[in-house]
Amino acid sequence: MTTETSITLELDDIQAGALRPRSSPYAGAYFLLRIDERRAGRELLRRLIPALASAANPADPAKQAWLALALSYQGLKALGVPEESLTSFAPEFQQGMAARASELDDVGESAPEHWEQPLGSSDVHIVLAALAPDAPRFETLVARAREALSDLPGVALLWRQDVASLPNEREHFGFKDGIGQPAIEGSGIGGSNPHEAPLKAGEFVLGYEDETGDLLPVPQPEVLGRNGTYMVVRKLHTRVAAFRQYVRERAASPAEEELLAAKFVGRWRSGAPLLLAPEHDDPELGADGQRNNAFLYGDDPRGLKCPFGAHARRMNPRDSAIVGEVRLHRMIRRGTTYGPPLPAGELEDDGADRGLMFAFVGAHLARQFEFVQMQWVNDGRFIGAPSEKDPLVGSNDGGGQLTIPQQPIRRRMQGLPAFVVNRGGEYCFMPALSALRWLADLDT
Ligand code: HEM
């Protein structure tokens, strides 16, 4: 399938951070800022706009390093955005992530009262993301951000989370990540699965027709909403030792341990999908961007190759028979790892904070991020397994379960704990460059 289309996306107005895939390897950081004085906040935007990259020329290697800016609802308020405009944003965004905790199953250790400060507080106004293919280019981005912040006492830098690819370019559990991404009409960025037709641009950018055939009203005024999108950031701590112990204890051999781990994810550690490599890892396939996502689940209707409950299959069931319409729940992901790797072979937790800065981009917070988090991560009804949550990232409490179909009889992995804990996050709006100029020029 091709991404040829008659849709014209205004790529030079949309921020690169919305559409551009991250490089690999990468070095980056998330900065959280508070606006104490609205004029200072507007001045910061004015200074930063020239440094923010647009989504134009996606193939240009010089554009692999970028700064992107997004605002929380509290941030829009702090800038002095008028009330009638504030109320035109998605209701979930207006509430913020912490207020959505019970819907998102951010409970127990993942509950907002345990979040790392200032995540989830009304102090988080601006999220500035810097992402580059290497440390020198990353430092250049940081220097630009610092310059913009200098002599601006009305804006406070509250928090910084550095992210960097691990030496093997995998996430902390040991799997290649960032493979499955949707193709988007008019973006110039091809998807990774030739069997998935490109999605309508309105799924990912506000102001364009979406998969329902609708052109929904954008946040008002038009100049503020158009070409913008929503971004969700979550700091997800990963319990790597617990995961290693779990599969070690339940496997009779190292080979079985690897197979079990692959059944949790739907892919082998190399990235090779179980659908195309059901028996053994195939590192060449895993590394081949032309082939490692070129599959559907249609020829595995019983889940004998890839369990219905495997993380990747739940998160994108493709053509599997499920309750619901997959194309309405797709997302752009830009996960980046933080913290030191747990040394190979180590089964005891060393107390280090390591995990994934999860980033979602999409135009529909409710039916994309929230729906997936509620229905596909933390509920199993859509695959006919009501008592099962996502085995890798679900809010399991020690009694979680993963069914692995196999012959002659299925295997049930039981007693699953939470391998991922949410340390906090926020719902943000990533305005277009013209919208940022409008915000910088507000005179309320
Ligand atoms: C620490 C937390 C997480 C880890 C370690 C993780 C890891 C992975 C890995 C290894 C893959 C397979 C490789 C790939 O296709 O890129 C994957 C795929 C995916 N994950 Fe996650 N993930 C995490 C959290 C989440 C969350 C919270 C969501 C959604 C709310 C999510 C959505 C997805 C999606 C949409 C895919 C692509 C599926 C496909 O297209 O086949 N992930 N993840």
Can you describe this structure?
- By secondary structure, the protein is an alpha+beta fold.
- The chain has 14 helices and eleven strands.
- It has helices at residues 16-19, 38-48, 73-78, 83-86, 91-95, 101-104, 135-149, 222-225, 240-249, 254-265, 283-287, 311-315, 365-377, 433-440, and strands spanning 27-35, 66-71, 126-132, 155-164, 229-238, 332-333, 336-338, 355-362, 400-404, 411-416, 420-430.
- The strands form three sheets. Strands 5, 6, 7, 8 and 11 form a five-stranded antiparallel β-sheet that branches. A four-stranded antiparallel β-sheet has the order 2-3-1-4.
- Helix 2 packs antiparallel against helix 14 (433-440).
- Protoporphyrin IX containing FE (HEM) binds at residues 171, 173, 175, 177-180, 236, 238, 265, 267, 311-312, 315-316, 331, 333, 355-356, 358, 372-373, 377, 393, 420.
